[in-house]
UniProtKB/TrEMBL annotation, chain A:
It comes from Streptomyces fimbriatus. Keywords: Membrane, Transmembrane, Transmembrane helix. Residues 1-20 are annotated as: Disordered. PANTHER family: INTEGRAL MEMBRANE PROTEIN-RELATED, MEMBRANE PROTEIN. The chain crosses the membrane at residues 40-58, 70-95. This is DUF485 domain-containing protein.
From TrEMBL, chain B:
PROSITE patterns: NA_SOLUT_SYMP_3. InterPro entries: Na/Glc_symporter_sf, Na/solute_symporter, Sodium:Solute_Symporter. CDD domains: SLC5sbd_u4. Keywords: Cell membrane, Membrane, Symport, Transmembrane, Transmembrane helix, Transport. It comes from the Bacteria. This is Cation acetate symporter.
Length: 118, 542
């Protein structure tokens, strides 16, 4: 396992064995990391795509509603468009906060143990 | 009609009078970036340097470079033009191009950085039979990149005719060839390190130029966006409809479907674009990859917000006739706007026009370099090293193959660019997005998250998505049967939509599922354990 310079298409660093990977994959700790990632990222992805599609569909089939002027020449469509920007910024910030607090420490712990304990 | 035409001629004359200035600014950019390239080339010693810039860029640097790679001629010229001509409908591009980044952030960037080394194929082939999957990944990387390259080359052709007063075909082809040669030099000498620095310089210039124009537009309207929109609506001759959805896509049921198709392709395409994906290998770890996406979302979001000012500003200050006469697709609205802001007859107008044009050139050049790097990397690493040489090539041989592939792809794109010089820029890029979302995204997501996924599923998904997407484009009004088509004089278009996404993207996902459930082979559980643990924890990533 301690090879220094194997051929280019294989790993150059010391890597755990396939058995160790399987063991970690089945461990409760990794299960917790996976759940913590997936239960956050998957529903959020569905939500922002639905929100974006809602905007696309409203633009297509609810022209009168989108054309309502709110103030001056600013109409509903314009506000909806800008809101897509706002939600994108917010989701990026929210996910990064979740990842830093909930995912990074768990991932780091597993990585350190696997690379150090081989 | 005649006043419009004289205006355009005026613009062209103005531009040619100050051609020296434009060329000087552009030459400055070329000399500076060539200097960077040579410097980076000296530091490029092994494959990790060539493909991934040594993985030592900071999250901010890479965020800037990602933005530089992403904000192409389509964003700058195409969106401004689409908004200037179709008002609110053009704004969909800006929104879709931005929201798409969330797919990359939440699902793709970090796992990819953790489990791949140099290319998209690294991740797709991780737990599959290497040779067929790498061949497929390499093929789709090159096809997507060439669609994207076409758009950039078309943008280059459009620009020169307006800016340098070159209207002859020979002149345009010469410019396309110059762009091609420069990109070969950037990529083959500077590798990822050189290309990344070029992207950063370009991103700063583009943001700077756009900020300046936005500021000047807003200044004209006392920073009152409502007044700007009102003036744009009035000057466009279309009234309130200009600010509402539907002007471009609202006419018929078919065009409405086209709008949905485009919308889906935009939002799902980004996370399947090879030249964007390989940027995540240039940072030290997944955390830095996440941070660079966040920087990119901030920078790109800010830029797309400014396209409101560019597009509606052009509509408010320039007549529709003049915009259309200059370029039927509106691709020159942004440079024309610069000229008008400075004053059509004044030196300021000429200087602004020259600056914005040089920025647009720099944009095209940098994006083209990024695309060439992605496709030559994939050729050398996926196809040459792992398929042809079966993993036995040395790093030196692999890098040599990459450099030759760069020259080859450069020559091919010069040839194609010369053909595509009159096509619609933003629309062409949307096609690249549709192909990426159909052929690449399903396989990336299945590979990372679906335990049962098999080699056959990967192949059906990549080739199925690719063939259907490209096939539908071939028989769409983009290629024939429409006055604005590639071949306007013939008609073999039986697919009514201009963007294939609504059919080809679900088809790519469906084929990946079908190929998997119908395959006789057992998925490699050990390899999936390895991929899953690595992708989520970064174990073994370097």
């Amino acid at each position: 396992m301690a090879a220094e310079a194997p051929p280019p298409s294989t790993e150059q660093h010391k890597l755990p064995t396939p058995e160790e990977f399987t063991e970690v994959q089945e461990s409760a700790e990794f299960g917790e990391l996976r759940r913590s990632y997936r239960s956050f990222a998957f529903p959020l992805t569905v939500a922002f795509i639905a929100w974006y599609l809602l905007y696309v569909l409203l633009s297509n089939y609810a022209g009168d509603f989108m054309g309502n002027k709110l103030f001056g020449n600013i109409n509903v469509a314009f506000v909806f468009g800008v809101l897509q920007f706002v939600t994108t910024f917010l989701i990026a910030w929210w996910y990064s906060r979740h990842a830093a607090a909930k995912l990074d420490p768990k991932a780091e712990a597993i990585k350190t143990r696997m690379e150090g304990g081989a | 009609m005649s006043p419009a035409i004289t205006h355009v001629q005026l613009a062209a004359n103005e531009a040619s009078e100050h051609r020296g200035l434009i060329i000087t600014l552009f030459a400055l950019f070329v000399v500076a970036t060539l200097g960077i390239t040579v410097w980076a080339g000296r530091q490029t010693k092994d494959a990790a340097d060539f493909y991934a810039g040594g993985r030592q860029f900071s999250a901010f640097q890479n965020g800037l470079a990602v933005s530089g790679d992403y904000m192409s001629a389509a964003s700058f010229l195409g969106i401004a033009g689409a908004i200037a001509l179709f008002g609110y409908d053009g704004f969909l591009y800006s929104i879709g191009f931005l929201v798409a980044w969330l797919v990359a952030l939440l699902l793709v960037a970090e796992p990819l950085r953790n489990s791949g080394r140099y290319t998209m194929g690294d991740v797709l082939a991780y737990r599959m039979r290497q040779r067929p999957v790498r061949t497929a990944a390499g093929t789709s990387t090159i096809v997507v990149s060439i669609f994207y390259l076409l758009a950039q080359m078309a943008g280059a052709g459009v620009l020169v005719s307006l800016l340098l007063g070159i209207t002859s075909d020979a002149g345009k082809i010469l410019i396309v060839a110059l762009v091609g040669i420069l990109m070969i030099v950037y990529v083959s000498i500077g590798g990822m390190k050189g290309t990344t620095w070029v992207q950063m310089v370009k991103a700063v210039l583009l943001i700077g130029g756009t900020l300046l124009i936005t500021f000047l537009v807003l200044l004209k309207f006392n920073f009152n966006i409502s007044d700007l929109l009102g003036e744009a609506a009035e000057n466009s001759g279309k009234g309130a409809a200009f600010l509402e959805p539907g002007l471009q896509y609202g006419a018929t049921g078919t065009s409405k479907l086209d709008f949905i198709s485009l919308g889906i392709a935009l939002v799902l395409g980004t996370a399947g674009l090879p030249h964007i994906l390989i940027r995540f290998y240039t940072v030290p770890n997944a955390k830095a990859a996440r941070k660079s996406v966040n920087w990119a979302i901030g920078i790109i979001g800010g830029f797309y917000l400014m396209t409101i000012a560019l597009g509606f500003g052009a509509a408010a200050l320039i007549s529709q006739d003049e915009i259309i006469a200059s370029n039927p697709s509106g691709n020159t609205a942004a440079p024309l706007l610069a000229l008008h802001l400075g004053g059509v007859d004044s030196a300021w107008g000429a200087i602004l026009l020259a600056t914005i044009s040089a920025v647009a050139f720099a944009t095209i050049l940098a994006v083209v370099a990024g695309l060439t790097l992605a496709s030559s990397s994939s050729f050398a690493h996926d196809i040459y090293a792992n398929v042809i040489r079966k993993g036995k090539a040395t790093e030196k041989e692999e890098m040599r193959a990459a450099r030759w592939a760069t020259v080859f792809i450069g020559v091919v794109s010069i040839a194609l660019g010369a053909l595509a010089r009159d096509l619609n820029v933003a629309g062409l890029v949307a096609l690249a997005f549709a192909v990426a979302a159909s052929a690449n995204l399903p396989t990336i997501l299945y590979s990372l998250f679906w335990k049962r996924f098999t080699t056959q599923g990967a192949l059906w998904s990549i080739y199925g998505g690719l063939i259907v997407a490209v096939g539908l484009v071939l028989f769409s009004p983009v290629v024939s049967g429409d006055p604005k088509a590639m071949f306007p004089d013939v008609d073999f278009a039986w697919f009514p939509l201009k963007n294939p996404g609504i059919i080809s993207i679900p088809f790519g996902f469906l084929m990946g599922w079908l190929g998997t459930v119908l395959s006789k082979e057992e998925p490699d559980a050990k390899k999936y354990a390895e991929l899953e643990v690595r992708s989520l924890t970064g174990t073994g990533a370097h």
